[in-house]
Design brief:
Layout: E1 12-14, E2 28-29, H1 47-62, H2 67-75, H3 85-88, H4 96-118, E3 127-131, E4 134-137, E5 140-143, E6 149-151, E7 156-160, H5 162-169, H6 176-195, H7 197-204, H8 210-237, H9 245-255, H10 258-266, H11 279-292
Parallel strand pairs: 1-3, 3-7
Antiparallel strand pairs: 2-6, 4-5, 6-7
Helix pairs in contact: 4-6, 6-8, 6-9, 7-8, 8-11, 9-11
């Protein structure tokens, strides 16, 4: 993908090195099975414990030791943080990965501004948040384990760029166009949000069973894949794509299908738990968007997927 030297988007919010805490809500995005439960039991501190900690803090403060600073330094390398956090948090804002993401985002802006204009509508650019390890979103807490996602509440795409390393190293989906597919998929969710598709889905899923909500989620995700394919088509027409780029995106779609991920992580598949689509479905819908370049071709809500 010949991306260097092209326009870069200013709609980037770089939070690397400034993670925050919270609780995650429902948007749209990539997710990899962790091989274990996501839930965790918690508990509150008693009044006695709180008083003890305050007294302890004041004692150390009087001795010239700031426990908050000490704890902050030790927490950054403790459990619950990704090992890559300390190194990636030092990533300069003008590194090549940042420049790449800025360029891909700019290309999505150009594509969707043109498409929306042809529809008699105005496209509103999303923000893309780069973070390291963990951060807070309008949908709640986000971590590297969450994977890239779009939050409809604040209209921002969230991306820990360490995900690209995992995509290549762990899942065998390497290449800059594979990475661009990830970004364009999340922007596809933003397009769905602007069109009112995501709000309708999030409202309807409150009345659905888990199985039905998963089935509808698959259709939402596959449409985002198709929208990513449309972006790919416009990128090809600009002459930016190089030989093998399309195959990189299709391979990425293949490697992150629900069935492929479940087979890799647990050795078997549970179809009723699929919420992004099978490998074949993801390839099919990205290819449909790429081949047609038309939004009408991306109706994943009518008929079989």
């Amino acid at each position: 993908m010949e991306w260097k030297g092209r326009r870069q988007s200013d709609n980037i919010e770089d939070r690397r090195g400034d993670p925050s805490m919270g609780g995650l809500g429902r948007g749209g995005g990539f997710s990899f099975p962790s091989g274990g439960g996501m839930g965790r039991r918690g508990g509150g501190l008693s009044i006695g414990t709180i008083i003890f900690l305050v007294v302890l803090y004041l004692i150390f403060k009087a001795m010239g030791i700031d426990l908050l600073q000490v704890m902050d330094g030790s927490m950054s390398s403790g459990p619950g943080y990704e090992q890559s956090q300390s190194s990636s948090s030092q990533t300069p804002a003008n590194d090549e990965m940042t420049a790449f993401v800025r360029t891909v985002l700019a290309e999505t802006e150009d594509t969707w501004q043109g498409i929306f204009q042809s529809m008699g509508r105005q496209y509103e650019d999303p923000k893309l948040v780069l973070f390291s390890g963990q951060t807070q979103s309008g949908c709640g807490f986000a971590s590297a384990a969450t994977g890239p996602f779009y939050c409809p509440q604040d209209r921002k795409v969230y991306l820990d760029t360490a995900f690209f390393n995992e995509l290549s190293r762990k899942f065998g989906a390497s290449g800059d166009f594979a990475e661009a597919y990830v970004v364009s998929h999340e922007v596809g969710h933003h397009v769905q949000n602007l069109l009112g598709i995501l709000p309708k889905f999030n409202e309807a899923r409150q009345r659905m069973s888990e199985a039905d909500a998963n089935k509808m989620s698959v259709r939402v995700e596959l449409q985002a894949d198709c929208f990513a394919g449309i972006w790919g088509k416009f990128t090809q027409q600009k002459g930016i794509l190089e030989a093998g780029d399309l195959e990189e995106a299709l391979n990425a779609a293949q490697q992150i299908g629900d069935d492929t991920l479940q087979k890799r992580s647990q050795g078997y598949v549970v179809p009723e738990s699929f919420n992004h689509g099978t490998s074949a479905q993801r390839v099919k819908w990205f290819k449909r968007g790429f081949d047609s370049g038309q939004m009408q071709a991306c109706d994943t809500f009518s008929g079989p997927v």
